[in-house]
Write a structure and sequence with these properties.
- By secondary structure, the protein is of the alpha/beta class.
- 44% of the residues lie in helices and 18% in strands.
- The protein has helices spanning 5-28, 37-42, 56-67, 80-91, 105-119, 140-148, 197-221, and strands at 30-34, 48-51, 72-76, 95-98, 122-126, 152-159, 162-164, 173-175, 180-185.
- The strands form two sheets. A seven-stranded mixed sheet has the order 1-9-6-2-5-3-4, with helices on both faces. The chain has a two-stranded antiparallel sheet with strand order 7-8.
- Strand 7 and strand 8 (173-175) form a beta hairpin.
- Helix 1 (5-28) packs across helix 4 (80-91) and helix 5 (105-119) runs parallel beside helix 6.
Length: 235
């Protein structure tokens, strides 16, 4: 949360900017959802969501409507950038626990586990980062799935018109208003509670592989032709 008067002003300005973008998206973007995501979000049963940092802006926007009627929780890093992200995400109705794979990760994962089990909430872990390389899955989402018994849904979003921040470590994407947007989701993946190190590593690699397959598909979707990776199980 903001500590100084200047931080409070800057955070409020950032929220105003984000709020304007949310309204523009709501009225101008045409979103096409592929796979089981929408059915899972409309169901009362808890589920875990994961995606790359590159996609996080539009993905969080898309979930705002669902955060109004069911609890959705995530982990945000303890960095200065994470403080602003926490402020914005909480303002839009999400629950945030602070921590990352490099600092406070175990404690934050335990808090997230307890919260989503107690509240039967949707849990989110952005599974690469908080440091490069991008598109390399950390084990957090797999550990969370083992602890909770909830299924993982892997997500990828991509716009027909968007700006790619090439200098950011994750090549962050900002979808432009008045754009067509496609959101891919993969079939739910369960991680058995008896899974140990080797099995957990297999699940981690599977998360990474499927997210990168969806990423490859998405980057050709609006420009065509769509490559053979259309074999994705998400259809």
């Amino acid at each position: 949360m903001p500590k100084s008067f200047l931080e409070k002003i800057l955070f409020r300005l950032a929220y105003l900017f984000a709020w304007c973008f949310v309204q523009l998206y709501r009225w101008s973007c045409r979103v096409e959802v592929k796979g089981p995501l929408l059915d899972c979000l409309n169901d009362d049963r808890p589920v875990l969501l994961t995606w790359w940092h590159q996609d996080m802006l539009f993905n969080f926007y898309y979930l705002i409507a669902f955060a109004k009627r069911r609890k959705i929780a995530t982990i945000v890093s303890q960095s200065k950038d994470g403080a602003l992200a926490t402020y914005l995400i909480e303002k839009f109705g999400f629950t945030v626990l602070r921590g990352s794979s490099s600092k406070g990760g175990k404690e934050a994962l335990d808090l997230l586990t307890d919260f989503i089990i107690r509240e039967k909430a949707v849990g989110i872990i952005v599974c690469d980062g908080p440091r490069p390389p991008g598109r390399v899955a950390k084990p957090g989402i797999v550990l969370l799935a083992r602890k909770t018994g909830y299924p993982i849904i892997k997500i990828r979003s991509w716009g027909a018109r968007q700006h790619l921040f090439q200098k950011s470590w994750c090549k962050l994407v900002l979808v432009c208003p008045f754009s067509r947007v496609a959101i891919w989701s993969d079939m739910p993946m369960l991680v058995p509670k008896e899974s140990r190190r080797e099995a957990l590593e297999e699940y981690r690699r599977e998360v990474e592989k499927r997210l990168n397959e969806m990423a490859d598909l998405s980057e050709h979707y609006f420009s065509g032709p769509i490559p053979s990776i259309e074999r994705l199980r998400s259809g």
